[in-house]
Amino acid sequence: MRVLGVDPGLTRCGLGVVDGLSGRRVTLVAVGVARSNPDLDADQRLLLIATAIDHWIEEHAPDAVAVERVFAQHNVSTVMGTAQVAGIAMLAAARHRIPVALHTPSEVKAAVTGNGRAEKLQVQSMVARLLSLDELPKPADAADALALAICHLWRPAGALSAPQRSPGSLTSAQRAWASAEQAARRASRG
Amino acid sequence: MRVLGVDPGLTRCGLGVVDGLSGRRVTLVAVGVARSNPDLDADQRLLLIATAIDHWIEEHAPDAVAVERVFAQHNVSTVMGTAQVAGIAMLAAARHRIPVALHTPSEVKAAVTGNGRAEKLQVQSMVARLLSLDELPKPADAADALALAICHLWRPAGALSAPQRSPGSLTSAQRAWASAEQAARRASRG
Predict the structure, then answer these.
(1) Fewer CB in 10 Å around end: N or C, chain B?
(2) B145-180: b or e for each residue (b if 16 or more CB lie within 10 Å)?
(3) B contacts of A4 (beta carbons < 8 Å)
(4) CB distance A41–B84 less than 8 Å?
(5) CB contact under 8 A, A43 and B90
(6) Domain spans of chain A, in order of start
(7) Is the ipTM of this complex over 0.90?
């Protein structure tokens, strides 16, 4: 399964494509950033980002698109642009008939590091380790997009609705996820 | 000049097309609402609204698209969807190479009623009068879209950057706007 992760932003929109299966090894396909100049009008900026997203979808043919869920409580000065880019990313996926999933930042952190409140640098380090990259993906938006894609591949269905669930009641997908997570953490210590 | 006004919303997106010139009589071309069912996933809702906006642009060939400027301070539970629809409306216009303008609610109220803090019903009444409609456009989102289009036609360039400007320093476009506004207010009293 191939997932395109989109970390929405009007100045920098992170894009990352990852191949993998639930609980299995993940591999990097492509990573980058779509940019738009803040001096341009908003509609032209959205057009630049939308064109880039369309290009990535057409070039990499993902099976799913994972977009960061944007909350109104985020940075007020940029949240409207971020929400608009999240909207055009969802629209681009829908127009290509590709399923869309939204993941919150803490879901992504939990999936990649095992801790929903992990620091940004820890998330980036884990993304580099999980994808066997020699260095941290830069800029941070690119790493975040890869983390979103990995989260989508690894997050077991239903995990969200039962975050407090005890280990004994895990489904097989959830056990696979937990095991992959432990393996990744072991690797990070090794 | 023909303007498509878009009052963005995910459940109801107001759409209104108005013909007119700065300070001159305005006429209704079309008005309606694009809707999406809240039970659908966000990407499918955005696709429905985007498809409707594309259809309106292609059918009515506006010279400009006026979109309400959305602020993060608005209703938090709906502001993200509203921002996303504003984004796809701007994107739709950009893809059709049509200029986009954003107008704030108070700019729209000031353009249509002469009072930036006018009540919603007053704005709707003025829209009906200005367009010689027998009844208030419904739902409110449709009337708001028409008001946006009228605002775009009537708002003089530079009016925003100099709201405190004295009457003596008005440009001819601004005088025309003030005069149209006065005429509209006289009509509302008559």
Answers:
(1) C
(2) bbbbbbbbbbbbeebeeeeeeeeeebeebbebbbeb
(3) none
(4) no
(5) yes
(6) 2-189
(7) no
